[in-house]
Automatic annotation (TrEMBL):
GO CC terms, sorted: plasma membrane
The name this protein goes by in its record: non-specific serine/threonine protein kinase
TM annotation in the entry: 292-315
UniProt keyword Ligase, yes or no: no
SUPFAM superfamilies found in the cross-reference section: L domain-like, Protein kinase-like (PK-like)
CDD domains per UniProt: STKc_IRAK
Molecular functions (GO terms): ATP binding; protein serine/threonine kinase activity
Top EC class, one word: transferase
């Protein structure tokens, strides 16, 4: 297997000519800044090629039909380019071709696709604008292929005892040692080629010191992370079971990656299943029958359980009495007793403890009429506390609740985040098996609602103020929160507006901590919302503050256009990028895109600079994007230069607008609190446990 991986190397100039390397099997040139050009003609000379990836490589023109004739080609991925015209699939398509991905291009029509019966992906192309429900227009990952390899030559294992399987080496019954091997970067996509997996089987039994053929592979498929996953069953070389030392040896070789698979499989990790054969200590056969052993085990188990229950009941009564006594003076006294690994009471800064009864009362027993949102984490209810403060209560459903340590870390983190452009955490509830977070209630709805649903007139200057407030909140998270926080789900439905249209960034459900600020990024599974996702983060799974900057740039384009990021198969970033015309002194080429409510503002220099700043934020290269601090200063300057019309022409100086300016510790230019960096430990990925919720339409 020969592979050329030049993805995400910031390459410029012309696409390198690899036609002389006719032994190549895999080519990946994605995420580079090549000079705009057509698909290289030399691809058709690589007769051994099995995978071509050129996503985000500035490809233009039509797709050559000859590309699909390559005999060994399994997949071609050329999404996020400027490929246009008609996509024609010839009648002589290679029989190995499993996936064709041309999502996010400008293809206007298709021809001959009935010749192709595998996976075709064309979402977010003009051809899909009037047919969003057609299969190839659905936004999706390539098909996950799954099947079981059948490399053993034995008959049915029905004669084996429970928990045993047939050893393919001798067809005898034995207890196998099982686990999952997950390969993160295999250099192939086709799992129907059994020769590769026979090679994997062979290296397993040979390098693990097993009997020839004593390995069985099953459930081979690409999982939701696009990793190759294989269920592995290893059988003992002699007898019906492994002894303790053998299991330990094999587990060590796999878990520590001492075993090396064939190169085409690439790096892997191993997750072992528990090895619990029905044997007695020392590996000797029991003198009792299986039924006798089972009966003794059940009787002994019942006795042990009964003793445990009695002890637990007594302990519970003692603990309950202690909790009731302590809670009268300290609402956190029972925290450590709630779960043995929960640690001490949370160290909070301003957040308060609420009893379950308090929150139940202020929401009329969590009535449907109080529900204002819902999502994977649970539901959100509005309520009014006894002191008249209106709140939004996020209540976790039972299947989504995290453990006590994670919940504790999360509320400790959120209680430290204080800024007037962030939705504030007021308190929490951790009682009666409930996990609830209590936030301030923001009455003005989401930015998306105000742009479209609510019909609120948002003039240009109001939109600039909303952009400035949101940017200040994000800049605080990136540069003053301790440790810094990457929001990871910035979008117009996560920016709330109060009665005065002041913007507040909400919902830190997908947030990540940047505990190691020198590292500069966090490796993480891609999460977020379609249309706002940073393409570099999507491709590399390397999350940084610049991922938030990209999402904020999309929000800026929403403020300009009034459109959602993806409408009728069109992506606003691409639409604006293609339409910009510096020679158009009136509308910068955006007359057809700009929201009619602010069309007059499009003639101002501030509008043009705002669009330029937004396009810098959505640059495909994270390194080329500005920081949120820079965005704040730029938008402030725009507001200062805006003429009067909707009110004061001042943005409000960052250094003087917020409380605390001019006294105490020096203030950050876009902070409303004094700079008091304090240590914070143990939070880890605490905020990863609260998926976002969508606000229900009124």
């Amino acid at each position: 297997m020969s592979c050329k991986n030049l993805a995400t190397n910031k390459l410029t100039g012309s696409v390198p000519n690899l036609s002389s390397m006719n032994v190549l099997n895999v080519v990946d040139l994605s995420n580079n800044s090549f000079t705009a050009s057509a698909i290289p003609a030399w691809f058709t000379n690589l007769t051994n090629i099995s995978s071509i990836s050129m996503s985000s490589a500035r490809l233009t023109g039509e797709v050559p039909q000859e590309l699909f004739n390559l005999p060994q080609l399994h997949e071609v991925v050329m999404s996020k380019n400027q490929l246009s015209g008609v996509l024609t699939m010839p009648g002589s398509i290679g029989t190995q071709l499993q996936t064709v991905d041309f999502q996010e291009n400008v293809i206007v029509d298709v021809a001959g696709i009935s010749n192709y019966k595998k996976t075709l992906l064309l979402a977010m192309n003009p051809v899909c604008s009037d047919k969003p429900t057609v299969a190839f227009c659905t936004v999706q990952k390539p098909n996950v292929i799954a099947y079981s390899t059948s490399m053993a030559k034995c008959n049915s294992a029905s004669g084996c005892q429970s928990g045993q399987g047939q050893n393919p080496a001798n067809c005898g019954c034995a207890y196998s040692y099982n686990g999952k091997m997950v390969f993160r970067a295999p250099s192939f996509k086709d799992v129907s080629d059994t020769v590769r997996f026979q090679q994997l089987e062979e290296t397993l039994w040979r390098l693990l010191g097993l009997r020839e053929g004593a390995v069985f592979l099953s459930r081979v498929h690409f999982n939701e992370d696009n990793y190759l996953q294989v269920q592995v069953s290893l059988f003992p070389s002699t007898g019906t079971l492994f002894n303790v030392s053998e299991v330990s040896r094999i587990g060590f070789l796999l878990s520590n990656q001492t075993y090396k698979p064939p190169p085409v499989f690439g790096p892997y990790f191993f997750i072992a299943d528990q090895y619990v054969p029905f044997i007695v200590a020392g590996g000797k056969k029991s003198k009792f029958s299986t039924g006798a052993v089972a009966g003794i085990a059940v009787a002994g188990g019942v006795l042990v359980i009964a003793l445990i229950l009695v002890g637990l009941f007594a302990l519970r009564q003692k603990r309950r009495n202690k909790e009731l006594k302590e809670r009268s003076t300290d609402p956190f006294a029972s925290w450590g007793a709630a779960q043995k690994d929960s640690g001490g009471a949370p160290q909070l800064k301003g957040a308060r403890f609420f009893s379950f009864e308090e929150l139940k009362s202020c929401t009329d027993n969590f009535a449907d009429s109080h529900e204002i949102g819902a999502g994977g984490y649970g539901k959100v209810y509005k309520g009014t506390l006894v002191d008249g403060i209106r709140v939004a209560i996020k209540r976790a459903q039972s299947g989504s609740m995290q453990g006590a340590p994670e919940f504790k870390n999360e509320i400790e983190l959120l209680s430290r985040v204080h800024h007037r452009n962030l939705v504030s955490l007021i308190g929490f509830c951790f009682q009666q098996g409930e996990q609830m977070l209590v936030y301030e209630f923001v009455a003005g709805g989401t930015l998306r609602e105000n742009l479209v649903v609510r019909g609120t007139y948002l003039g240009w200057k109001k939109r600039l103020r909303i952009a400035l407030g949101s940017a200040r909140g994000l800049a605080y998270l990136h540069e003053l929160a301790d440790p810094p926080i990457i929001h990871r789900d910035i979008k117009s439905t996560n920016i709330l507006l109060d009665e005065n249209l002041k913007a507040k960034v909400a919902d830190f459900g997908l947030s990540k901590l940047v505990a190691d600020t020198e590292k500069g990024h966090v490796s993480t599974q891609v999460k977020g919302t379609l249309g706002y996702l940073d393409p570099e983060y999507y491709m590399t799974q390397q999350l940084s503050e610049k991922s938030d900057v990209y999402s904020f740039g999309v929000v800026m384009l929403e403020l300009v256009s009034g459109r959602q990021p993806i409408e009728k198969g069109k992506y606003v970033v691409r639409e604006v990028r293609q339409a910009i015309d510096p020679a158009d002194r009136d509308y910068y080429g955006l007359r057809a895109i700009v929201d009619p409510a602010i069309r007059d503002a499009a003639r101002t220099p501030g509008f043009r600079r705002f669009v330029q700043l937004a396009m810098q934020c959505v640059d495909e290269s994270a390194a080329a994007r500005p920081t949120m601090g820079t965005v704040v200063k730029e938008v402030e300057a725009m507001l200062l230069n805006e003429p009067d019309g909707e009110g004061s022409n001042s943005a409000g100086s960052s250094a003087t607008e917020f409380d605390g300016a001019g006294r105490g510790a020096p203030s950050h230019p876009y902070s409303d609190v004094e700079i008091t960096r304090s240590s914070y430990g143990g939070a880890g990925d605490a905020s990863d446990y609260m998926p976002y919720f969508e606000v229900k339409p009124k």
